[in-house]
Design goal:
Chain B: This is Transglutaminase. Chain B: Keywords: Membrane, Transmembrane, Transmembrane helix. Chain B: InterPro entries: Bact_TGase-like, Papain-like_cys_pep_sf, TgpA-like_C, TgpA_N, Transglutaminase-like. The complex is a heterodimer of chains A (318) and B (655). Chain A is elongated and about 115 Å long. In chain A, helix 2 packs antiparallel against helix 3 and helix 6 runs antiparallel to helix 7. Chain A has 318 residues and is of the alpha+beta class. The relative contact order of chain A is 0.11. A five-stranded antiparallel beta sheet of chain A has the order 2-10-9-5-6. Helices cover 49% and strands 13% of the residues of chain B. Chain B has a five-stranded antiparallel beta sheet, covered by helices on one side. A five-stranded antiparallel beta sheet of chain B has the order 7-2-14-17-18. In chain B, strands 3-4 form a two-stranded antiparallel sheet. In chain B, helix 1 runs antiparallel to helix 4. The longest helix of chain B is centred in the first third of the chain and has 25 residues. The chains are: A alpha+beta (318), B alpha+beta (655). At the A-B interface, helix 2, helix 3, strand 5 and strand 6 of A face helix 5, helix 6, helix 7 and helix 18 of B.
């Protein structure tokens, strides 16, 4: 019995890809149309049909034409609700997918951008990996639907199949369509939980250089009004104009020049995890970092976008 | 009570809006069932429903099981104590309404609300088993609105709207599905015989009853409900001849007149011209079929007694349509057998000595001239100081004596009863006939509307050579009763004369009920055939009807699908033309890529179709100007572009 069901299932999945979960991937935008929207009665719809049949037989048995008329009215209204169910999906368009940022193992916020056709799409659900979100798209409107995507490994994660369904308007019919966008989201590597800080070559000399005053961020050009005792005379002597010691600028963080090559003793994944941890630590304290990878060389920078840039590069590592 | 066949996933609690709608639905169900449920029962259910609504508003939560069980026991006990059974139509309806209210008590999840709404639809339908009039049907159909709105409100992420507006989409849905419903109604094959017994009505309906004692009609004569509608082939008979006989009553026990000969061949009748007519009888719960005096033969599924009283084979629990022929001038039973004669002369001993004495005195006075005796009685009623009233003084044991020599006031029953007693005392065979007299002629619908208030009782006396002759003593007292109908007679007889304008409006409006009764309630297998024959369909078997239903249903399905897939044409006409161009170019192999700009696309097209380069470049320039050069593009430019786009046909380059 079970084997037979499974055979039918495999056959259906092979022959009717649009009906089943094994829908092939397709590029955005994905528009739902009549060839890919399927409708079946819900359990409640089946029960309601039985109720209608009981009402029909009762009306016929008692030759009660008013009751028969009511039954016919209710029956045709509920059948018409099937068309409304279809219509709430028909023409719905998935125009874009926006990914959030997440390290492997954490759920990633995915935003699906749906846009409506000439009519409103009411009470549509998007199911992705056991989560569902109900939404409504106005006619010619746009709706953003947020879902959580679970992640396991760093790198490109293809978007899973998404089931769009609706029981609108009476919950008697279940209209659905599988979509499988040809898109992947980038998952950042998971940083290792603990380990040594980076060893910077010539740590001490860097400190020296700071005192010697070469290319230091803490010196800036003289502006009218700067007090005289702040002028760095020594440095100014080697320049065309006066330089001033800038006390208002926060204490400069020590720079980290992170380099793939320095971690030669580790396996590639461990290297990536360590670099990810260092990047994270640097990001929390606002330390400027640069990153050298075999695929990419990212120069010194700091801030959220720099961090994302570096993490993306790490995630993309082969 | 909850059928837990399956374990259900935990469900979110029900929102307030669907619960409110469900309560409205149940209120409507109680409303449509109220006319045939005891008032205290309806009231108790309404109070319970109100309490539940208030409780859930304060603090949501299911009613505890012990409360539900005790309420269920209470409900069953109430139904059994009132009806002494739980089977049958009325107890069933009471139970359905009660269970529905109990369902509301445990409604906390969307699933409960769904079940409640579906059950409400069933409960609404059962209300039509009691009254299938047009108003009732429309009210019940409107009761579907909150039920459908409840189901709709259970869907998540629906646009918010006010409570009355929630009903609007359901109304639209019902209106849109009305044509399909009519189609199904017409073509659904009817059962030739019921699958199980028809409900037997235990509820007494007011109407004519099989026996009569003076004063019985008082309530009936104020009852405005239609009793039947009669349409005639040819001209209707004049008002004075609109006597519809229902019961012929020969047996008298001093107070009550009842039954006559049930079986036996109908008395012979010689007749003059014949009137053909069709009667639409409202449900009476009885078997008698009123017929214009005097019917010649019984319709199918009915039989005629020896006294030409017609009885249907089954009680008339639903409106019934039957066609008949009657004669207005006739000689009924020229010969009277000895047994019949004895029966028509029988008087209970020990009652009404004065009336008997008067009858015997007349016999002595007029001798064998029986017509003169009858005339004397009519004269007595006319000149003896009698008055017509619907609220006569009560009568004692000797009802006829008290009425004739004491109170002098009464209505048709008193006159008919006394007249027959007088005739029998004088030795003339006589009997009481009850039925309807008069009616309102609806000239718009060409039918006669007979109301319960038109109930009437008159007498028949048997005269040698003439047979049974109708004598209406009420006409002697109040001629308007016969010439103008009961409304005119009752207008003065009751304290509150009904507004004439209102009466005439209501009589005119009745035509709609007539249509409803004939078109909808009377629609049966025969009508089905009659409707299809003009279209060349003579076979009305179940298979044929099923086929027609399927064809009609498919047509509606196609129409529905067209509606569902119809996309509103875009308001941007330049864009429409551009789309058309894209389609044509795509057929030539130049497919516009997602997010490809128009300039790039046109240049690509021009490279692919070098022979049409100039045309394409012109199109590109016009389109770009249309799109980007103006805030509001000039009309002639748009026209220009649309024309050029229409004319453009890509020519494939043969390489």
């Amino acid at each position: 019995m079970l084997a037979a069901i499974r055979r039918v299932q495999t056959w259906a999945e092979r022959r009717l890809p649009a009906l089943t979960r094994y829908k092939r991937t397709e590029p955005l935008p994905i528009v739902l149309h009549r060839r890919r929207v399927y409708i079946v009665p819900t359990a409640f719809g089946a029960a309601f049909t039985v109720l209608l049949l009981i009402m029909l037989v009762g009306a016929l048995n008692y030759t009660n034409n008013a009751a028969l008329m009511l039954t016919c009215l209710l029956g045709s209204a509920t059948s018409a609700s099937m068309l409304i169910a279809f219509r709430s999906l028909d023409g719905l368009k998935l125009t874009g997918i926006r990914q959030g940022q997440a390290i492997a193992g954490e759920p990633m916020a995915i935003t699906l951008v749906f846009s409506g056709s000439g009519h409103a799409h009411l009470s549509v659900h998007a199911d992705m990996n056991d989560q569902a979100e109900a939404f409504t798209v106005e006619a010619h409107g746009e709706t953003l639907v947020s879902l959580q995507l679970d992640t396991h490994r760093r790198g490109w994660r293809p978007m899973p199949r998404i089931k769009l369904w609706s029981n609108w308007p009476l919950g008697l019919f279940h209209a659905w369509s599988w979509i499988h966008p040809d898109q992947s989201v980038l998952v950042w590597p998971h940083p290792e939980t603990g380990g040594p800080p980076p060893v910077m070559p010539g740590d001490a000399s860097q400190q020296q250089r700071l005192h010697q005053g070469e290319d230091i961020a803490a010196l800036r050009a003289y502006r009218a009004g700067d007090p005289q005792r702040h002028i760095a005379w020594k440095h100014s002597a080697r320049h065309d104009n006066l330089l001033v010691k800038d006390f208002e600028q926060p204490e400069a963080q020590e720079e980290w020049h992170l380099d793939w090559r320095q971690l030669a003793q580790l396996s590639p994944e461990s290297r990536i995890e360590r670099l990810a941890r260092w990047l994270g630590e640097a990001e929390t304290v606002g330390r400027p970092t640069s990153l050298w990878l075999p695929t990419e060389d990212i120069s010194l920078g700091h801030g959220r976008s720099h961090y994302s840039h570096c993490m993306n590069a790490l995630a993309r590592m082969p | 009570m909850r059928l837990s066949l399956f374990r259900h996933r935990h469900q979110a609690p029900l929102e307030r809006r669907p619960f409110d709608l469900l309560c409205i639905t149940v209120t409507v169900v109680l409303g449509v069932h109220a006319p045939h449920l005891p008032a205290w029962f309806t009231l108790a259910l309404a109070v319970m429903l109100g309490l539940r609504w208030w409780q859930r508003r304060q603090r949501p939560g299911r009613a505890p099981t012990y409360l539900k069980l005790s309420l269920l026991a209470l409900l069953t006990a109430a139904v059994i104590s009132h009806y002494s059974t739980i089977f049958g139509r009325e107890p069933g309806a009471a139970l359905v309404a009660g269970l529905l209210v109990l369902k509301v008590f445990e409604t906390e999840t969307p699933r409960d609300a769904r079940v409640g709404a579906a059950f409400s639809c069933f409960a609404l339908m059962t209300a039509l088993l009691f009254d299938q009039g047009m108003v009732a049907t429309v009210l019940v159909a409107l009761g579907l609105l909150p039920a459908l709105a409840t189901l709709r409100a259970l869907q998540p992420a629906r646009p918010a709207s006010s409570l009355p507006r929630e009903l609007l989409p359901a109304l639209k849905l019902l209106a849109a599905s009305l044509p399909m419903a009519l189609l199904a109604f017409i073509f659904v094959p009817r059962l030739s015989s019921p699958l199980w017994g028809a409900p037997n009505s235990t509820q007494g309906r007011t109407g004519l009853s099989a026996d009569m004692s003076p004063g019985d009609f008082a309530e009936l004569l104020l009852d405005d409900r239609p009793a039947m509608r009669v349409s005639f082939v040819g001209a209707p008979p004049p008002n004075q001849q609109r006597y519809f006989r229902a019961y012929v009553l020969s047996n008298y026990d001093g107070r009550t007149w009842n039954g006559s000969e049930r079986n036996g061949t109908p008395g012979a009748v010689e007749h003059g011209p014949i009137t053909q007519y069709t009667v639409t009888l409202e449900a009476t719960g009885q078997r008698v079929l009123p017929a214009l005096d005097v019917p010649l033969e019984a319709p199918t599924q009915a039989s005629m007694s020896a006294d030409r009283e017609m009885r249907a084979d089954r009680p008339v629990n639903d409106p019934l349509v039957y066609s008949l022929r009657s004669a207005s001038s006739y000689r009924l039973q020229g010969q009277l057998s000895e047994r019949e004669r004895r029966r028509a002369l029988q008087l209970p001993p020990g009652f009404d000595p004065q009336a008997r004495a008067l009858g015997q005195r007349w016999r002595a006075q007029y001798g064998a001239n029986e017509a003169a005796i009858a005339q004397a009685a009519m004269t007595l009623f006319h000149d003896g100081g009698f008055s017509y009233t619907l609220a006569p003084a009560p009568l004692g044991r000797n009802t006829v004596d008290d009425f004739l020599f004491g109170t002098h006031e009464g209505f048709c029953e008193h006159y008919a009863s006394s007249f027959v007693v007088l005739m029998r005392a004088a030795g003339i065979p006589a009997r009481v006939v009850t039925g309807y007299q008069g009616g309102y002629w609806n000239s718009m619908g060409n039918y006669l509307l007979v109301r319960q208030a038109d109930a009437h009782a008159w007498s028949e006396v048997w005269l040698p050579e003439r047979g049974w002759v109708r004598m209406d003593p009420t006409a002697a007292v109040r001629p308007e009763r016969v010439s103008q109908g009961s409304a005119a007679a009752n207008a003065k007889a009751t304290d509150w004369p009904p507004n004439q304008w209102w009466l005439s409006w209501r009589n005119r409006w009745d035509i709609v009920n007539q249509w409803w009764n004939q078109g909808v309630i009377g629609f049966d297998t025969m009508r089905q055939r009659g409707l299809l024959t003009p279209f060349g369909v003579n076979d009305t078997s179940v298979g044929m009807l099923g086929l027609l239903l399927a064809i009609g249903g498919s047509l509606f399905a196609v129409g529905g699908l067209l509606w569902a897939m119809w996309q509103r044409p875009e308001a941007d006409r330049a864009h429409t033309s551009m789309r058309m161009l894209e389609k044509r170019l795509a057929s030539a192999g130049v497919i516009r890529r997602h997010s490809e700009g128009p300039q790039h696309y046109f240049s690509r097209a021009a490279r692919a179709l070098p022979s049409q380069r100039e045309q394409l470049e012109h199109l590109m320039r016009t389109y770009l100007e249309l799109r980007y050069a103006h805030d509001e593009p000039p009309a002639d430019l748009l026209k220009n572009f649309r024309q050029a786009a229409r004319d453009f046909r890509p020519r494939r380059v043969v390489k």
